[in-house]
Design brief:
Family (chain A): Belongs to the transketolase family.
Order of helices and strands of chain B: HHHEHHEHEEEHHEHEH
Largest sheet of chain B: 5 strands, parallel
Strand order of the largest sheet of chain B: 1-2-3-7-6
Largest interface: A-B, 26 and 31 residues
Number of domains of chain B: 1
Number of helices of chain A: 11
Helix content of chain A: 25-40%
Oligomer: heterodimer
Strand content of chain B: 5-15%
Distance between the termini of chain B: 30 Å
CATH architecture of the largest domain in chain A: 3-Layer(aba) Sandwich
CATH superfamily of the largest domain in chain A: Thiamin diphosphate (ThDP)-binding fold, Pyr/PP domains
CATH topology of the largest domain in chain A: Rossmann fold
CATH superfamily of chain B: Thiamin diphosphate (ThDP)-binding fold, Pyr/PP domains
Strand content of chain A: 15-25%
Protein name (chain A): Transketolase
Largest sheet of chain A: 7 strands, mixed
Order of helices and strands of chain A: EHEHEHEHEHEHEEEEHEEHEHEHH
Number of strands of chain B: 7
Structural class of chain B: alpha/beta
Organism (chain A): Candidatus Doudnabacteria bacterium RIFCSPHIGHO2_01_FULL_41_86
Cofactor (chain A): thiamine diphosphate
Radius of gyration of chain A: 19 Å
Keywords (chain A): Thiamine pyrophosphate, Transferase
Structural class of chain A: alpha/beta
Number of helices of chain B: 10
């Protein structure tokens, strides 16, 4: 059974919203609902969408300055005192720059800290490779106890934010800067540890996370015209991964494509490959960053050049079905 | 405890440190020995806590940033009644609660995990912020740091933070023993002018003899009177304090004992440096 998405999925004028906006909305809801939730930020309050929270809940917003190691340590200390801190920066800086603090002060210590990395992916665009977080999924999912969430649009980002606050334990939430299609609905399910089938198909499974879920749906729409029926799964919960849903799907399709805006090494594709190789190995093609650093350019140009758009997914599907 | 009893307690803790390290066959020596007086002062003359109720909300928080000196923490906690002193012999062994570097989930009374240097002050600062600004409670936060770990940038990020938010309930104590693994701090990476650095970062700075228990307690009490800023107490110590052949020598930062060295060290501690006759003579 597939989930409910918006009605006119491929309308040219589909609403475009940055995924990070959903985090800002979620934080406002949490501010109202849960007095234990506090927000910490490293001099990026507006662009990480914490500004409204900082205005509405000034007593629970803490400006840390450009100091991401301290950010993670503070998060640990506040969690130790019973608070639910959302520590926020760009993915390249947190968890990029403060990985050891996240490992020891947060994960090993069992501190209930929510790490929010915005501006992940190559779609950061003109700022260039330094600011394009392409390794964050790999370095967070390797940590014991960590939950890793990669929402596909702003609505799902809001749900992920609320779910992270309810979950007891460290959570990493990955956000993107650029506007991308808002294609899920209030009714679309989201749950930590669950993957959801967004489109059913018998020939190939596409497991995607982030904006690539929409591109996968676009690819599936195009491929059906060529006689290839794709099953599209949103694996927003990269860790814990819903192995059962993936295995059930590839039992039927016998092959899989993974798609993400992240290094192929260690990312969503790797997580899926680890799970399937334990349960039901099938041919897999990986859509993602091919072990390179990015560059400046417009988001759509970069996504196309580096092969993480619908076109790249179509090509990967055609490759993988031949390998069955 | 009166001063004399505190000094004897510190001596007992030093003996336990030697015995623990002999049993463990690895671990750090110089720092634990030189911080025995500071830990004794904190746990028996300064801090409010209940070893039978380690999570008591009104307790003072104690954060150890330089986890490698934890033999002194474990020994002090055992003497303070958190767990039996017999458990000290399990240090670093399979199944122990006394891991090679402290783990908060393993042992009640340990507030934070540490080992990788420079991570303690951030956590202590958050606890102090929570106590002072969010919870508005009178408990205090004590954070023990080594001097070597002042080379970590995170320490200074946290120092700026604590200063910005005027965390007067936060007291840092630095083991200024002038040594680290590779040599003397001023050769490895100079820290001086050390007190000036902390002053420049907006802290109230006290410099004391880290082996004078009266001075340690007085400094902690003085910090309580400083209203507008956090306080750091630079505790000047002698590495390996209490054991003549270890004192001042950076080689003993984490050297493994020979059996006869341990016996010599214990003899010296038992006789209070030759002031009384050893029971083994």
């Amino acid at each position: 059974m597939t989930v409910k998405l918006i009605d006119n999925l491929f309308a040219p004028d589909i609403k475009q919203v940055p995924i990070r906006n959903g985090y800002g909305e979620g934080l406002l809801i949490l501010g109202k609902e849960n007095p234990k939730v506090i927000g910490l930020c490293c001099d990026l309050t507006e662009s990480t969408r914490m500004l409204e929270f900082s205005k509405q809940y000034p007593d629970r917003f803490i400006e840390v300055g450009v100091a991401e190691q301290n950010l993670a340590g503070l998060g640990a200390g506040f969690a130790h005192e019973g608070y639910i801190p959302f520590i926020t920066s760009y993915a390249t800086f947190s968890p990029g720059r403060n990985w050891d603090q996240i490992r020891v002060s947060i994960c090993y210590s069992g501190n209930n800290v929510k790490i929010v990395g915005s501006h992940a992916g190559i779609s950061v665009g003109p700022d260039g490779a330094t600011h394009q977080g392409m390794e964050d999924i790999a370095i967070t999912r390797v940590l014991p106890r960590m939950t890793v969430l990669v929402p596909a649009d702003a609505i799902e980002a809001r749900k992920a934010t609320l779910a992270a606050a309810k979950h007891n334990g460290p959570v990493y939430i990955r956000l993107a800067r650029e506007k991308t299609p808002q294609f899920t609905t209030e009714e679309t399910p989201f749950e930590i540890g669950k993957a959801f089938v967004y489109r059913e198909g018998k020939d190939v499974t596409i497991a995607a996370a982030g904006a690539q879920v929409y591109y996968a749906l676009q690819a599936a729409d195009q491929l059906t015209k060529e006689g290839i029926e794709c099953e599209v799964i949103n694996v927003a919960s990269v860790k814990p991964l819903d192995e059962q849903t993936l295995v059930e799907s590839v039992k039927k399709t016998k092959c899989i494509v993974t798609a993400e805006e992240h290094q192929i090494t260690g990312g969503v594709g790797s997580a899926v490959a680890e799970a399937l190789s334990r349960n039901l190995p099938v041919p897999q093609e990986f859509v993602g960053m091919p072990d390179k650093f990015g560059e400046s350019g417009e988001p759509n140009e970069l996504i196309a050049k580096w092969g993480m758009d619908a076109k790249a997914i179509v090509a990967a599907v055609k490759r993988v079905v031949k390998r069955k | 405890m009166n001063l004399e009893q505190l000094e004897l307690k510190a001596n007992e803790i030093r003996q336990d440190i030697i015995r623990m390290l002999v049993s463990a066959k690895s671990g750090h020596v110089a720092g634990p020995l030189d911080m025995a007086d500071v830990f004794t002062a904190l746990y028996f003359g300064v801090m409010n806590y209940d070893p039978k109720n380690p999570q008591m909300e009104s307790r003072d928080r104690f954060v150890l940033s330089c986890g490698h000196i934890n033999p002194v923490w474990y020994a002090t906690m055992a003497h303070a009644g958190f767990f039996p002193t017999s458990e000290l012999a399990t240090l670093r062994k399979l199944g122990t609660r006394l891991h090679g570097h402290p783990h908060n989930e393993a042992l009640p009374g340990i507030e934070n995990s540490s080992g990788p240097l420079g991570q303690g002050l951030s956590q202590a600062a958050a606890m102090a912020y929570a106590g002072l600004i969010l919870k508005k409670q009178p408990w205090r936060v004590y954070c023990v740091m080594s001097d070597g770990e002042q080379e970590e940038g995170q320490t200074w990020e946290a120092a700026m933070f604590a200063s910005k938010y005027k965390l007067r309930n936060l007291t840092g104590l630095i083991d200024r023993n002038n040594i680290q693994i590779d040599g003397h701090t001023e050769d490895i990476m100079p820290l001086e002018p050390f007190a000036d650095k902390w002053r420049a970062f907006g802290w109230h700075v006290l410099e004391i003899d880290g082996h004078n228990i009266r001075e340690i307690i007085d400094a902690c009490n003085q910090a309580k009177a400083i209203y507008e800023k956090p306080t750091v107490i630079i505790c000047h110590t002698i590495p390996g304090k209490g054991v003549d052949f270890m004192e001042y020598r950076y080689e003993w930062h984490s050297k493994v004992f020979e059996k006869d060295e341990a016996k010599k060290a214990l003899d010296e501690l038992r006789t209070l440096g030759g002031k009384i006759r050893s029971e083994h003579e």
